Structures are given as structure tokens and as C-alpha cells.
Amino acid sequence: xxxxxxxVTTNRGVQYNMVLIVRQNPKTPMDxxxxxxxxxxxxxxxxxxxxxxxxxxxxxxxxxxTTSDAEVATVEDGLVTPHKLGTATIGxxxxxxxxxxxxxxTFVDGSIPTDIDITKPASTRLxxxxxxQLAYTVKPAGTDAHGSRIHA
Length: 152
Fold this sequence. Notes:
- This protein is mostly beta strands and 152 residues long.
- The chain has no helices and 13 strands.
- Helix content is 0%, strand content 47%.
- Strand 8 and strand 9 (79-82) form a beta hairpin.
- The chain is elongated, with a radius of gyration of 29 Å.
């Protein structure tokens, strides 16, 4: 993009001068941006839909999707299908220009909690032979802490 001065000389020595202005076609992709998920930990039982944006916003073009490990997850038209626990990098590449973006996803067993937050009680004093009830929140939401043990 830009401009340059162009001089053309004929066989008879006549010169023509002009300024050549080169502009970007607004429909030509200059980059691609993957709309990354809020979390890169994905439940192995749940497919994930990814989308992308071409840059500039007026650009048009086709893309192809890639995976670094088809045994862990495959991707077709932005739909990521997990196959087993593990990590895979999912990418999108423009057919014109080869612009690319990717996200590294970790496929986890979503039924197993990864973290438990214990709400602090109003008092931390506990008399002998008394019990203290604690409240907790399991992460990610929807997992079950049944059978979990807290050791003090």
C-alpha cells in the first residue's frame, strides 16, 4: 500500500509520467483472530464451538481448521470434538495469505472437582468434643465433591 511515480518510455522516446496508488482490497484478509473461550479447560464430554473473525472486518475468505493431536480432539468447521483427556492446540488458517491463530485447550474430566473454596466460619474457636460446620463451593460449577475428604 502506498504510492509511487511511474515513468513509461515508448520506442520513440516519448515519456509518460503517472502516479500509481496501491490500495488494499477491503475484501482481502490481512489477518485472522480466533475468538478464544473464557476457559481453556474443556470438559472431555462436551463439544466446543469456536469462531473466528477476519481482519479487516470487511474481509471475505475461507479458512481451514487444524488440531495438533487428532487423538485428543478433532475440529471441523469450528466444532471441537474431544476424544480423550489431554491437550491439543486448535487453529484456524486463512486460505489466502496463510494467516493463523490458535488456542491451546486442555480436555479434563468435568465431573471431577479441580478446586474447593471453603467459606471461613464466623469463629475459628472450637471447643473439644464440638463440631464445626463448614460451607464450601466446588469448582468448576456442576461438579460433585461427594466422597471428598478435607484433612486438617
